Amino acid sequence: MSPLSLFTFTCMVLCAVHCFPSEESFEVSDEQEEDSVNDNSLKEEESDISTLLEKANKNVGQGLDEPTVIGDIAIPTDLGNADPCTSRGCKWRKSKNGVVYVPYRISNQFSSRERSVIVRGLNSFKASTCVQFIRRRRQRDYVYIQSRNGCYSFVGRRGGGQVVSLSRRGCVYHQIVQHELLHALGFNHEQTRSDRDQHVRILLQNVIRGMEHNFNKINTNNLGTPYDYGSVMHYGRYAFSRNRQPTIVPIPNSNVQIGRATQMSSNDILRINRLYGCRKSE
């Protein structure tokens, strides 16, 4: 290589190093997108909703600016429990035209492919409910979708820019997007329903020590809807198992599949419409 060629090559290398954008303004390239940890395809044994959440949430809540997280539910510091809040003002407000507009912002941490999965999840509510997720302009209250440590959301509207975390490492799947957004709309997990003992047995002896709180029963407003094994909010049979034995067993038919939903069920949709007084057909 001639001295001139060597000088040119050196300048190109230095420019590439010093001109690369900072992490905050970094947007994922097409090549990196191809190598993304989330290709939105799963083996059958990995598609269980609670399995996805457990894997993604191993380090959740360890960041200095992260809330306390129980399971995949962020706990406000001003509340001492996880009781339902929809009767106390945490529903999103309905506009005069009957639509519940929920503003959102998506961090630029996501690749274009991941962003399309998230937007698809956001848009899926519009087709069958009166809830519409819209891009935030100047609204005070909105959901801020970021890639933090794991998958989690607050339950209901908290005020200001409330975080919905969809980590790029394990959370950007359609069913997980819908699951976390349903939390943000005010819904808890199906297996925590007030009437759950009539439909499932919780085997706490098989639960990882210290994780029993994920199976606490809550005095939920069930909105006159039946227990739904196919809900996108239902955990799987081996959720938080410490010994590969079931922690949730359906009754009376123990063979019923749970935790395998790939999208909202008809009951999930019905509950949104009833909670928010939508005029969509039931």
From TrEMBL:
Alphabetical list of CDD domains matching this protein: ZnMc_hatching_enzyme
InterPro entries assigned: MetalloPept_cat_dom_sf, Peptidase_M12A, Peptidase_Metallo, ZnMP_hatching_enz
Annotated signal peptide: 1-19
Single annotated GO MF: zinc ion binding
EC numbers on record: 3.4.24.-
Sequence positions that bind Zn(2+): H179, H183, H189
Gene3D superfamilies: Collagenase (Catalytic Domain)
Catalytic site positions: E180
Gene Ontology biological process: proteolysis
Classification via Pfam families: Astacin (PF01400)
Keywords per UniProt: Disulfide bond, Hydrolase, Metal-binding, Metalloprotease, Protease, Signal, Zinc
Residue ranges constituting the Peptidase M12A domain according to the UniProt record: 81-279
Cofactors: Zn(2+)
Cofactor remark: Binds 1 zinc ion per subunit.
Domain of life: Eukaryota
The protein's name in its UniProt record: Metalloendopeptidase
Source organism of the structure: Conger conger
